[in-house]
Amino acid sequence: MSKTLYDKIWQSHLINEQDDGTSLIYIDRHLVHEVTSPQAFEGLRLSNRKVNSPKRTLAVADHNVPTLDRELGIKEEDSRIQVEELDKNVEEFQIPYFNMNDTRQGIVHVIGPEQGFTQPGMTIVCGDSHTATHGAFGSLAFGIGTSEVEHVLATQTLIQKKAMNMLINITGNLDKIVTSKDLILYIIGKIGTAGGTGCVIEYSGNALRDMSMESRMTICNMSIEAGARAGMIAPDDITFNYLYEKPMAPKNKDWDKAVNWWKTLPSDTGAKFDKIVDIDATKVTQTITWGTSPEEIVSIDGNVPNPDKISDEVKQNKIKRSIEYMGLTPGQKISDVEINTVFIGSCTNSRIEDIRSAAEIIKGKKVSTNVKALVVPGSGLVKKQAEEEGLDVIFKHAGFEWREPGCSMCLAMNSDKLNEGDRCASTSNRNFEGRQGKGGRTHLVSPEIAAASAITGKLTDPRDVT
Amino acid sequence: MEKFNTFKGIAAPFNILNVDTDKIIPKQFLTTIKRTGLGKHVFDEMRYKKDGSENPNFVLNQKPYDKSNILIAGDNFGCGSSREHAPWALKDFGIKCIISTSFADIFYNNSFKNGLLPIMVTKDERDALLEDAKDKENPEIEIDLGNQEIRRPNGGRIKFKIDPFRKKCLLEGLDDIGLTELHENKIKSFEESRSTKHPWL
After folding, report:
1. Are B45 and A434 in contact (CB under 8 A)?
2. What percent of chain A has pLDDT above 70?
3. What is the arithmetic mean of pLDDT over A169-190?
4. What is the end-to-end Cα distance of chain B in Å, rounded?
5. Which among A21, A126, B46, B198 is most buried, taking Cβ atoms within 10 Å?
6. Which residues numbered 230-259 in A keep a CB inside 8 Å of some CB on B?
7. Mean per-residue pLDDT for A195-202?
8. Of B26, B79, B200, which is closest to A227 when you measure between CB atoms?
């Protein structure tokens, strides 16, 4: 019978299945960070359990780490304790670890692929919802809660029920100016933040085949914003070339065997999907968010919606609330909206390609005097690569701050945060109320739009600054 | 885990669309290394004013809802991050059950691991329960997981569906890890065959 990519991975990891469909599946890789793991390690200690497979686990501190003056340590006491807990736990349970001062340290979803820890056909989990990122390699990757982190640490398995198969089929080609960030925001706008609930999304179509791994990761990363726990893209030569000779990727004979197996993974012709959504790539424009939910999108040349035109009362109230929180007026042109902060970073858009695209626009220009702008590379290795290419100099000359890697202002658990009323063009993934700091206002944008907006101090189409 | 018994409790009307986990428990409280003590911070931004005092307009600050055990919630409750701090905070506040038309997957899953029961009902049923909850004089609803039934203040009953395995785990207070360890031999043989077939994994 024809199978989807998801069916194939699911079936090859199934250890046990009960009559009601409750299944025990094997987990190939587990990424661990400081925020969602302390209670899990504590649970292991209390029940006298060990970590089942330390070699399938990789730990890193990313959420809480400072992006300035790292050599001085972490100032905030709670954050420091949390990272110190991770230091102690990885030592006690013998888990491979990139500590805060390791060049390989970075955002968990940047370092997994970068190290070749992430590979096609695997099951990959992490106590973080953006684990969906790794699905760009044709793996089944999803976020889990702390109880499940403990479960995976103890048993290298998870109790799950199979999700539905959903296909997002992108037909036609994207306009050159349209990025993968625009595409995923557009998709979320189309299907809504609950559009993928209960599903694993597979993205397909020629537009994806031309995309780099970085761009594919941006798409899979935000699957969770569409309600799906996982998003996947079938592996191809671009995937294999990316992984080749990565430190943790298979080597020599194993590499050849692995590639042969990876080539069998894409969904079979005629495989059944429970839901299919067609997206016409030619209709996708440069897309950003205006509101406080990732589905509240607008084209860069568009306007803030008018809630009076919405008939559903609950939806109307939500839009009114978003407009009020965001300090906008109905019908306002989005490109007239002034910003005072630009954040280029996060597991969505902090890879080398993102930094290159933003640098391309910033080159020879200056950040508007009203704007505080920062670049937070996704990992120490991304930072190093960018510096070798001289991109740091471009940003610094323009007036950007060039920081140390981490999650930073995406969720503002460290000291990088918005103040009340600040408005940010952010390359991150969530625009919820208070996400980047209490009272802060977030517009989700591509690295290109973030860079252009830094120059003008308004939400700006990159074509208007070149 | 504590067993989930039939209980009667105050239900709060909480009809907000897409309540995300940042709203349930903002990130400044995620630096804890414990599972307890988050109840005072649940819904922090809606619940407290800038000066730290309680916002009287927020439903869980109003009597009798300050003692709520049940939330009657808007669609897609719990979307956003995987933070288990969200069910920990709700549980610590005293919430034992959330009734909505839909939940985000990870939140839904995390709730069961913490003895917090998420119940899915139809829009009409949810809207009827919202009306029940709005009656401050008599907002008590009974949740009977064994019989998969919600008993309304007017005596009406609403049946709900639930995964049988999850139901059993809640009713008996079963520990997932303990259950999985019963499959130890199967896990071992799976690992062995996998290392032969795909040694790089």
Report:
1. yes
2. 100
3. 98
4. 34
5. A126
6. 250-251, 254-255, 257-258
7. 97
8. B79
Name every chain B residue with its beta carbon within 8 A of the beta carbon of A64.
31
Residue B98: left if φ>0, alpha if ψ -120 to 50, beta else—which one? beta
Q: What is the pLDDT of residue A466?
A: 83
Query: CA–CA separation, B159 vs A367, rounded Å?
Result: 59
> Measured between CA atoms, how close is B29 to chain A, in angstroms?
9
A22 → chain B, closest CA residue: B165
- Give the one of A16, A193, A251 whose C-beta lies nearest to B76's C-beta: A193
Task: Say if the Cβ atoms of B18 and A318 lie within 8 Å.
Answer: yes
Range A178-204 average pLDDT: 97
In chain B, which residue ranges form alpha helices assigned H by DSSP?
A: 21-24, 44-47, 85-93, 105-112, 123-134, 164-172, 176-181, 184-197
Residue A413: other Cβ atoms inside 10 A: 26
ipTM above 0.85, yes or no: yes
**DSSP bridge pairs for B99:** B72, B119
pLDDT tens-digit series, residues B80-110: 999 999 999 999 999 999 999 999 999 999 9
A105 has a chain B CB within 8 A of its CB: no
- Contact A438/B at CB under 8 A: yes
Q: Report chain A residues whose CB lies below 8 A from the CB of B33.
A: 38-39, 42, 81-82, 85
Give CA–CA dist B6/B27, Å, rounded.
Answer: 33
Q: Answer whether A372's CB lies under 8 Å from A341's CB.
A: yes
State the pLDDT at residue A213: 98
pLDDT range class, residue A54, cuts 50, 70, 90: very high
A120: contact with B, CB 8 A cutoff: no
Mean pLDDT of chain B: 96
The per-residue pLDDT for range A146-170, each reduced to its tens digit, is: 999 999 999 999 999 999 999 999 9
Give contacts of A38 with chain B, Cβ < 8 Å.
33
Indicate the pairing of strand A287-289 with strand A297-299: antiparallel
- Report how far residue A243's alpha carbon sits from residue A273's, in angstroms, rounded to the nearest whole number: 29
The whole-number pLDDT of residue A459 equals: 98
Q: What residues form DSSP beta bridges with B163?
A: none
- Checking if the pLDDT of B7 tops 90, the result is yes
pLDDT surpasses 90 at A314: no
A201 with A170: CB under 8 angstroms? no
Distance CA B58, CA B48 (A): 8
According to the model, what pLDDT value does residue A244 have?
Answer: 98
Rounded Cα distance, A188 and A117, in Å: 28
Q: What is the pLDDT of residue A123?
A: 98
Residues 177-196 of B with CB under 8 A from A: 177, 179-181, 183, 186-187, 190-191, 194
Number of Cβ pairs < 8 A linking chain A and chain B: 175
